[in-house]
Structures are given as structure tokens and as C-alpha cells.
Specification:
Elements: H1 2-15, H2 20-35, E1 36-39, E2 42-45, H3 51-58, H4 62-74, E3 78-80, E4 86-88
Antiparallel strand pairs: 1-2, 2-4, 3-4
Helix pairs in contact: 1-2, 3-4
Length: about 100
């Protein structure tokens, strides 16, 4: 029950962010903790999410998510492995 309450608080905190970039980072960090598997390249998310699914979760458009994920990839914080799973490195500087 405590775990479920912590998850609910994390989700409420995430959706209260004004900027989609911040909501996306919080979602990815939460998924990293919940379903992440440590690999030599970073933490691999065990679930595969489409850009559209992320957009629906965060209340934005697929195009916005695609652009923001591209920014995170350019920063070196996020990569996609050969099986199309997200791999998360360290949090970007100034992140939350």
C-alpha cells in the first residue's frame, strides 16, 4: 500500500509540471526505477513504448515527444538499443 501511494505521488508530481520536457524526464526517471534493468550502456527500460503512447500519457502530441526524445538522444542521456528499448544514462544537467 505504501508503494502504491509513492507511485501515485510520483505521478501527481509529474503531471503538475508545466513543461512537457520536464514531464517526459520525470516519466522516464520513474520508469527507470520501476522497470529498469542495469546494463553496461545504462538502464534499459523493459517495456517498449511508442512515441504516441508517451504523448498520450503526458497529454501532448506525438510530434512533440519525437522532438524531445531527439533532444535527449543528442544530449547523450537517452539511446535506443537494437530491440527498440529506451536506454537511459545519467540525468541531464539541471534535471529536476
Amino acid at each position: 500500500m505504501i508503494r502504491r501511494l509513492q507511485q501515485t505521488e510520483a505521478i501527481l508530481s509529474m503531471i503538475s509540471q508545466r513543461r512537457v520536457y520536464d514531464r517526459l524526464l520525470q516519466l522516464l526517471l520513474m520508469l527507470k526505477q520501476e522497470v529498469g534493468q542495469v546494463t553496461p550502456d545504462g538502464v534499459r527500460l523493459e517495456v517498449r513504448l511508442t512515441h504516441q503512447q508517451l504523448a498520450n500519457l503526458l497529454g501532448t502530441t506525438r510530434v512533440t515527444i519525437t522532438r524531445l526524445l531527439g533532444d535527449l538522444r543528442q544530449e547523450g542521456w537517452l539511446s535506443i538499443d537494437r530491440t527498440r528499448h529506451f536506454v537511459i544514462a545519467e540525468a541531464p544537467s539541471g534535471c529536476l
